[in-house]
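hey m, so remember when u said the tokens were messed up on ur end? i reran from scratch. heres the input so u can diff it against urs
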Amino acid sequence: MAKYVKQFLLVLLFAILTQAQTSDSKEVKERRARARSLLVSLATDARSFHDQTLRARSLARIADALWQVDAEQGRLLFRKAWDAAEVADQESDRKLQEEISQQKNKTGGGFAVSLPPNLRREVLKLAARHDRQLSEEFLEKLKTQKADAINTATSKSGNRLSEALSQRLGVAQELLQSGDVDRALQLAGPALTVVSTATVDFLCDLRDKNPSAADSAYAALLASSANNPQVDANTVSLLSSYIFTPRLYVTFSGNGVNTSQMSSTIKPAAVAPELRLAFFQSAAAILLRPLPAPGQPDQSSSGLDGKYLVIKRLLPFFEQSAPGDIVESLRGHLNALNALVSDNTRKREDDWITKGVKPDRPAADREQALLDQIDRAKTSEERDRLYIQLAYMTMAKGDLRARDFVSKVEDTELRKQAQAYIDPSLAAHFVEKKQVDPALKLVHDGDLTHIHKAWVLTQCAKVIAKSDRDQALQLVTEASEEARRIEELDPALPRALLAVANAFRQIDAERVWDATFDAVKAANSAEGFTGEDGELVLKFQSKGQSSVNTNTVDDFDLEGIFKDLANRDYDRAVELARGFQGEGPRAVATIAIARAILGTDKRR
């Protein structure tokens, strides 16, 4: 009897569990259906958004979220998103040129700007995840459009990508970073025939994930470059980066130098000897081309001075492992150039000539060299410039002495501008390194804006949340008070309040809803709040020097927090999103909720 009772209980338990699973499955399907309906309704509204940037982004993101349940609808929305992105990019480029022109007139030539979002690239990136043919359709449209004034001109050396190839490679780079190596390679293919900083950087990233594919593409680039009459010494310098100084790129224009360093460390790539030899042979074929006849100008991008500096910079690599005849030929060519270049070029021995070739000079030596120059400076203007260089150098190391160097600047307005750049930069450094005490010192003593202070306080609160919850909550409260000192119409107010809400997610989850509601109310009063593109921008401009530092801050955006809220309580999150009066933030929040329910982010 006990045996039958046990069997009956097991059957009953199985039936209960099955019914519960069926009920859960039905609820999930209902929530997904509601989320899909939410997106379809938003898509209808988005087609009539007046803001072309908002229209492009909303339609593209809705298409991305809908694709797995309705690919045809997604394809239609991607095409409409592309049309809006074209209009938005043209308008952004026009405004950018106006801003550059205004700054040049003000500074005498220098400018520092934050580049606008590239909407077509955003649409391309999302479309390329789903449909290669559709992404190629968009790229073909780029080829037929009028070249953009700043991005599309191809230099004489061939070291610049056209707009279409630049867009293609940019999207491929993003696919590569997300782990979609095969699709990234397919998309990047046509761009890998041009030597540029972006091309070589893509190959360096590719080598981290697929060394064989990267080396093969690089070898093909070497072979085509050796026979290309348009390439020059700068091409060789860029090609050398792949093997000897990955992610450090140095090119020359006469006696000037252009540099780009994508990584804090420079480590040579462990390529096969055959590939290294192929570089030496291709490089020699380019560098040893005959010099122009006397009286005839050099038409290359580097000029004779630049060519001299490229050979001088790369010669140690050749001397280490290139065939002896190539080394001797390069030395002879360098001697021939020695008689043609300027005296300044011959004597030039600065850090950028040896960067990545020889060990960097110790920071203490570079600092002392600047201090010596200050002692010899004859004018206050020259001293101010050198003190700012010292401030930049020490700031990069998180050294608070940077503030002392700025305080020595005699020009009052220049000192004020520099302090407003150095203090927040130091604070960001300490936040990144999770150094709470010096970060908080700058909140209380430094020249930081209210939104910078709110951000630093919330980040410090997250760092100490586990070890000292009470102190963390106190910092979040202080951040909220700092945020409310921002003017009501300023979009920085809802961004700062969102940072507070995101801090509560980690420290006191029960207070997230109220904190987010406060951000929604603030957003409805703030002009220009979009719910995304949250960032902290620092600018410094002086005569002869311009710097701009833009840091993306996810905690200022709606996407992350509304995904979290949707998983906590879908209906309540939807109701909160409907509280936005602006089309932009309402669209961003709604798409975030739908993505959380449809699971599109898990797929990635």
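this time it looks ok to me. Residues 151-354 form one domain. if urs says something different then somethings off w ur setup not the seq
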